[in-house]
Write a structure and sequence with these properties.
The chain has 6 helices and 5 strands, in the order E-H-E-H-E-H-E-H-E-H-H. The protein has 159 residues and is α/β, with parallel strands linked by helices. The chain has one domain: Rossmann fold, CATH 3.40.50. Strands 3-2-1-4-5 form a 5-stranded parallel sheet, sandwiched between helices.
Length: 159
């Protein structure tokens, strides 16, 4: 039986921390769908289409990874693509407390889907999309926080 999981997020942008959690997840699951959720209440720095491209560029060479976008509830998306697990990266106890509440709500809505918490490595525990966006918007070099070979400054300057 194929073990398939969804790794949902806004990924605005996809960081080295996200890649770290994804690589750890691939040791447990056969297929991981990196799922970019559309949130109408958030104006992203990058469009959904750009995020899909950035993630595909970031995961080039990794086997078992799919990249998709979705709207609606994450559990509904999981059911639609036959994934039995939701992956959530955890950097701190604060992340865990927040994610545990969401995991419990997801379980109530869809008990067939289990949330799995993956701790980030120490090297990536401080990396957040918010920090990367701030660095980029202020003209800094964010490459140290991104997957090798990904250059978001070029994408921003072409906007």
């Amino acid at each position: 039986m194929i073990r398939k999981a969804v790794f949902p997020g806004s990924f605005d942008p996809f960081t080295k921390g996200h890649l770290d959690v994804l690589q750890s997840s691939l040791r447990v699951f056969d297929i991981v769908v990196v799922a970019i959720g559309y949130n109408k209440d958030k104006n992203g720095l990058f469009s959904i289409e750009d995020r899909v491209e950035i993630i595909k560029e970031s995961v080039k060479g990794l086997e078992g990874v799919e990249v998709q976008s979705y709207t609606g509830l994450t559990v509904d998306f999981c059911n639609s693509c036959n994934a039995g697990f939701i992956i959530r990266g955890i950097r701190s106890t604060t992340d865990f407390d927040f994610e545990q509440v969401i995991a419990q709500a997801n379980y109530k809505m869809s008990p067939n889907i289990q949330t799995v918490f993956i701790p980030s490595s120490a090297e990536c525990s401080f990396i957040t999309s918010t920090v990367v966006r701030d660095v980029l918007l202020n003209g800094g070099d964010a490459t140290m926080f991104l997957a090798p070979g990904v250059n978001l400054s070029q994408r921003l300057s072409s906007k």
